[in-house]
Amino acid sequence: MNYLAHSYLTFTDGQIVGQFLEDFIRNRDRFSFAKDIQDGITLHRAIDTFTDSHPAIHEAKKIFSPLVRLYAGAFVDVSMDYFVANDLQLHTLAEWKAHSLRVYRVLNEHEQWLPENFKMMLKKMEQDDWLYNYREDQGIKFSMRNVLNKAKYLEKDIPVFEAFLENKAALQQCYTHFFPDLLAHAKGVNALLQIEH
After folding, report:
1. Which of 59, 171, 191, 196 is most buried, by CB atoms within 10 Å?
2. How far is CA 138 from CA 89, 135, 188, in A?
3. Cα dihedral 105/93/180/125 (nearest 10)
């Protein structure tokens, strides 16, 4: 899953920090953080493992695989954020906006834990309100372009965004079959983490 889904599947402020830090730290460094931040790192990994093994995600990857092969998962992750952001059974638009603002606030309040490259990204994320704007096609286009720019072995003009637009209905179906399972899994993982406290 991408940034919005990871931020939504949290249960404490510390877990928000850990969910975002996971992609920016070495494994051996995880134990230098407070327990609730470590919980967020653990939750992030559990979410990624569950996502990668879900049949609906395997279906969604087939949409992007002909274009980007092994990178298909990254574009599915971005696509799923679009459907999370537009899922009004989870939250109203006003609540999504409030969620986005809360995430930026929490991350800034824990700035001492953030590596420099993450701080730079956070400024852009907050300035352009990435989390809230994943609900717009243009927000997804921007995010997919970022993935293409970071990918070492992909041409920068591959029409992944066009594939997203053309297959939005099929991707929506994948999301519908997948996200309730992921939400239940995240709640279960969190319950186990709380027992450890």
Report:
1. 171
2. 22, 9, 34
3. -40
The model scores a pTM over 0.85 = yes
Q: pLDDT tens digits for 65-119?
A: 999 999 999 999 999 999 999 999 999 999 999 999 999 999 999 999 998 999 9
Contacts of 16 (CB under 8 A, 6+ apart): 7, 10, 40, 103, 106, 107
Q: Confirm if 63 and 167 have CB atoms less than 8 A apart.
A: yes
Torsion over CA: 128, 130, 135, 137 (sign): positive
How far apart are the C-alpha atoms of 87 and 107, rounded to whole Å? Answer: 24
Query: DSSP letters of 72-132?
Result: HHHHHHHHHHHHHHT-TTT--HHHHHHHHHHHHHHHHHTGGGS-HHHHHHHHHHHHTTHHH
Residue type, 8: Y
Which amino acid, 75? Answer: F
CB atoms within 10 A of CB 126: 17
